[in-house]
């Protein structure tokens, strides 16, 4: 009840601050509340472990801290009589041809790599070994990452009854993401683009949209856990498999909240130092210095009743890798960084700055699952977006000559 009252108050203040619900804070806390309520309803039943209500307190402490930079940024804009909500200034209203060409080149290259991987070990299709070989390391991993901002931009610009070629490009980019077999890569791209469309009015919130998102999430899950593995392993679909995946679907959506709850029950034995939160920066230094890279992925798996989980939610993971002072400081810093992008998006009205902002909102929207800012993508995706902005500008400059 404390959390629900707090979130209601923060949502109201956030709307007053920015005149919209499509903000980083709302992206972080509203999906978490929805998943938390589902978790509480199934915990202790259907084979799931009991829920530790004390695990909610880290969110009760963390959300107001995350909100402070938001309200300070809004107050600063209003102090100088600047707007707090603007639309994207974009004369094209369609994806730049140079970006479509870039996407096509990346798709062709990655599809070739996919074909190569399948031809060298078709029976491994759908396994971790397959995804690692396909695009989990080296240059191929970076090329796959370059697709993420293009997928967000394509989904933002695409229209229902037009852009046939763009729909094909989106479908092929999704094929690559499906083949990589990481649900977050698909969900984050779609959620980021959807939030961007809702913010700009290209899409409107309604029951049909909500049901479509839910059905889409279920289909993604079944594609990854049933259809694709069956294609690669000559398996057979039956009701037992369908039931297993349905239970695993519920496990996935509660794995962060139950994982953090169970971790707290055990006394947080995975507690470690803050270097893991700063893993992208630490690993850049280690790579340049020739040192061994560190993995921020939690090494302790807990069985929450249906399967194992090593994710601890956004604030749960920060808590695992910090002490109290570091938790407060880091939460304020990461929020300040994201709301700096928010201020720049409002002031410059640039589609690419909005893409970075809503990509971060997509990461925050997965906060019910895990903390995603300790991956290199946190740095890499914005760099790729700025690169696409640069080549688009060059294209316009050449066209005006």
Structure, described:
The protein has a two-stranded antiparallel ribbon with strand order 1-2. It is mainly alpha-helical. It starts with a helix and ends with a helix. The protein contains 15 helices and two strands. Helix 1 runs parallel beside helix 3 (57-79), helix 6 packs antiparallel against helix 7 and helix 9 (207-233) crosses helix 10 (239-265).
Radius of gyration over all CA atoms, rounded: 21 Å
The overall average pLDDT, rounded, is 90
Helix content: over 70%
Stretches with pLDDT under 50, minimum 5 residues: none
Total helices: the number is: 15
Number of strands: 2
> Main sheet, how many strands, which sense, barrel?
2 strands, antiparallel
Give the termini separation: 62 Å
Q: What fraction strand?
A: under 5%
Placed side by side, the strands forming the largest sheet appear as 1-2
Helix-and-strand structural type:
mainly alpha
State the gist of this model.
The chain has helices spanning 2-18, 24-42, 57-79, 97-121, 128-135, 138-157, 164-180, 183-200, 207-233, 239-265, 279-289, 314-320, 324-348, 351-365, 377-399; strands at 302-303, 308-309. It is mostly helical and 401 residues long. The termini are far apart.
Using brief descriptors, characterize the structure shown:
mainly alpha, 401 residues, globular
In terms of topology, how is this protein built?
Elements (H helix, E strand, L loop, with lengths): L1 H17 L5 H19 L14 H23 L17 H25 L6 H8 L2 H20 L6 H17 L2 H18 L6 H27 L5 H27 L13 H11 L12 E2 L4 E2 L4 H7 L3 H25 L2 H15 L11 H23 L2
Antiparallel strand pairs: 1-2
